[in-house]
């Protein structure tokens, strides 16, 4: 009897393993989800400044000089627009994620605007 129970457990484990192999995301899919793709937008500096004033100055300062968050005055010389977009979307450390709080196009516009700060 014990032999049949163990065979049943083994068969069930094999079925679960096969199902997981076909349903779990692959490395490429996980990497794509980890790095959000930036939508294409035309830079609108006035709109970006409005978003920054309403969402960013409390941590990064009114002149982007830093405070709780790092100085962003020359962030464009350190990061690409895509890297900035990813960081703002997902957040990092004490920086909150803004995906869901801001539209993707707003985040992309801010990322492009910040990338001009060199």
UniProtKB/TrEMBL annotation:
GO MF terms here are:
electron transfer activity; heme binding; iron ion binding
Membrane-spanning parts: 6-25
Pfam families for the chain: Cytochrome_CBB3
Q: How is it modified after translation?
A: Binds 1 heme c group covalently per subunit.
Q: Name one GO cellular component term.
A: membrane
Give UniProt keywords alphabetically: Electron transport, Heme, Iron, Membrane, Metal-binding, Transmembrane, Transmembrane helix, Transport
- Give every Cytochrome c domain span: 43-118
The residues that hold heme c are 56, 59-60, 95
Protein name, please? Cytochrome C
**Taxonomic lineage:** Bacteria, Bacillati, Bacillota, Bacilli, Bacillales
């Amino acid at each position: 009897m014990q032999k049949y129970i163990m065979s049943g457990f083994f068969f069930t484990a094999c079925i679960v393993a096969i199902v997981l192999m076909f349903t779990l995301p692959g490395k490429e899919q996980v990497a794509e989800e980890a790095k959000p793709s930036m939508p294409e937008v035309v830079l609108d500096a006035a709109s970006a400044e409005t978003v920054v004033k309403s969402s960013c100055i409390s941590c990064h300062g009114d002149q982007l000089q830093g405070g709780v968050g790092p100085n962003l005055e020359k962030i464009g010389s350190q990061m690409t627009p895509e890297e900035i977009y990813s960081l703002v979307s997902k957040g990092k450390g004490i920086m909150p994620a803004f995906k869901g709080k801001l539209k993707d196009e707003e985040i992309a516009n801010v990322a492009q605007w910040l990338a001009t700060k060199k």
